[in-house]
Design brief:
There is one protein chain. The protein has one domain. By secondary structure, the protein is an all-alpha fold. Helix content is 83%, strand content 0%. α1 crosses α4, α1 packs across α5 and α2 packs antiparallel against α3.
């Protein structure tokens, strides 16, 4: 595979990795298992138990495991055709996936802020109209 194809696949494979990591660590559909993991990461009796459960609550940490699954599934490697290519690909995929998740978080934060500002403005407008009546 040429280097340009490898780079193309790097940015493409990072999308589903980011999607899975974000969904499991942030979205409502996984809230109950995530709450269980959060509770165990705080209240676990051993450091190993706390750290194990923490891995499922942090998108950065969890993305490493998703990357490993994708590397096994796709056999994607970067720069080298041997084990070194898998290691480089793994860290590169984690980095790109987390950049995607950071951009998504910023976009989502902006949307939430705009919705909140719209609600405040609407409430102020409604109150002004009620006062005028």
């Amino acid at each position: 595979m040429t280097i340009s194809h490898q780079i193309y696949w790097l940015f493409l494979l990072a999308l589903p990795i980011a999607s899975v990591a974000w969904t499991v660590t942030h979205e409502e559909v996984f809230r109950e298992p995530r709450d269980y993991c959060i509770r165990n990461s705080h209240e676990g009796k051993t450091i190993w138990k706390r750290k194990f459960f923490y891995l499922f609550t942090c998108e950065y940490c969890f993305s490493h495991y998703i990357v490993i699954a994708f590397l096994i599934l796709t056999q994607y490697h970067l720069l080298f055709d041997d084990w070194r290519g898998y290691i480089i690909a793994g860290f590169a995929l984690v980095w790109i996936a987390n950049a995607y998740m950071s951009l998504y978080a910023l976009l989502r934060q902006g949307i939430v802020k705009e919705k909140t500002e719209i609600k405040v403005l609407k409430k102020q407008t409604d109150e002004t109209h009620m006062d005028d009546s």
